[in-house]
Amino acid sequence: MSDTPKQAPKTPARSTLKAVRGTRDLLPDQTPLWNHVESTARAVFARYGFGEIRTPIFEATDLFARGVGEETDIVSKEMFTWEDRARARAASEKAQSLTLRPESTAGTVRAYIEHKLGETGQLQKLYYIGPQFRRERPQRGRYRQFWQIGAEVIGPQSSGSESPLRDAEILEMLATLLDELGIRDWRLELNSVGSSEDRIRYNAALREALQPVKHLMCEDNQRRAETNPLRVLDSKDEADQEIINNLPKIADYLSDDSRTHFEAVKDALDACGVPYHLNPRLVRGLDYYTRTTFEFTVTTGLGTQNALLGGGRYDGLSEMLGGPRAPGIGFAIGEDRLILTLQAQAEADAAASGTTPTTTKFDAYIAPIGTAQNPAALALARELRAAGLKIEVGDGTFKLRKSFDTADTLARHIILLGEDEAATKTYTVKTFATGEQTKVPRIELTEKLRN
Ligand code: AMP
Questions:
Q1: Is the minimum distance from the CB of 308 to ligand 1 under 6 angstroms?
Q2: What's the CA gap between 37 and 43, in Å, rounded?
Q3: Interval 244-293: pLDDT, tens
Q4: Chosen domain end from 324, 348, 372
Q5: What CATH number does the domain containing 146 carry?
Q6: In sequence order, what are the residues at sequence separation of 6 or more whose Cβ sits closer than 8 angstroms to the Cβ of residue 383?
């Protein structure tokens, strides 16, 4: 990307432009499901006291370098970054490096610090819904622009932000949301990566254990073994799996505090009846995580990209970004993947029951007969829509046959509006389901169309 205005390249006359690889258009047959997911999430979050935060889509690159971690895949190879000269007044002044957000926790914590939300002394419960950008190899369930629905609970220690109750509440809320959306086969994978001190000890143990075997591993893992051994545990490299499974386990390096914290999270989940599976390799791809980490996976619809959402605790993140001590925990749901799962479930249900999903039709289609009736048709549509009906208007240039055919496809009724109807305010209405055609006075029309 570049911020210097250049002349747009001359486009050959007939070339068609397409959405960039890894980005998608969501058309009106898809967006109702997206809106349903988002409104369900908003309703669930509201019951738990979360308020919405909207942060900018781009931030200073340094925020992600410091917050997410230089050595992570996201920062080292997936960010869309550019040099912005807008603020540099003199040619000698350094351009600012900006990045399209690859995730929203860093931006949310930056906003928490910038707006001094901690000074209220209250726990902040924040949620967001919006696009994220990562330069990943596109495939089903993995895009370069994708949506996340996420939430963060953060606050000064005195607000109880470090309490294991918060971890369990977040996980129980996610179970509730997935249940309310009708996701059937979710599985919660849970781990604790300990405090930052525990991780220093564990990293040292990993590094030592990797020394004699790392030369047998793939190039990426050899590098990680040196720079950030914890990342080796995320590796999907088939050939390296056996070595990785035999490495030391984080559970054996947890301090008493971290262990007690993790036990309390599990106890609260048990009390709520939220099932979970312990996964000692779940360290997640971002550097800021401490203690509880988790992922929800599904078996329907996603293939290899089966992680529906991920999250964890990040007690040191605010300080890493220059803020006050503010423990927190959060998650991000991959909305694209959630939708793919719901679509796959609906397809499986339809196949099992032999039905096809139905779309809601217009209550009525108004067919003006002759262009002179177009204004009256629009005025009638305005009144009926105001009464809460879903109305489509045809056009006076259409032949009656075409109006009937279109109306039959789109609507439950057709209203014919000719000169006579306009003058008498009595309309010819046909109900497609029954084939019945009657004259309906205006005063009875709204009621007639509701049925
Ligand atoms: P992360 O921010 O990496 O913890 O990811 C949280 C969730 O976002 C994942 O579990 C996925 O569901 C989703 N996600 C991450 N990267 C992508 C991507 N490139 N395309 C679609 N969804 C993604």
A1: yes
A2: 10
A3: 999 999 999 999 999 999 999 999 999 999 999 999 889 876 667 889 99
A4: 348
A5: 3.30.930.10
A6: none
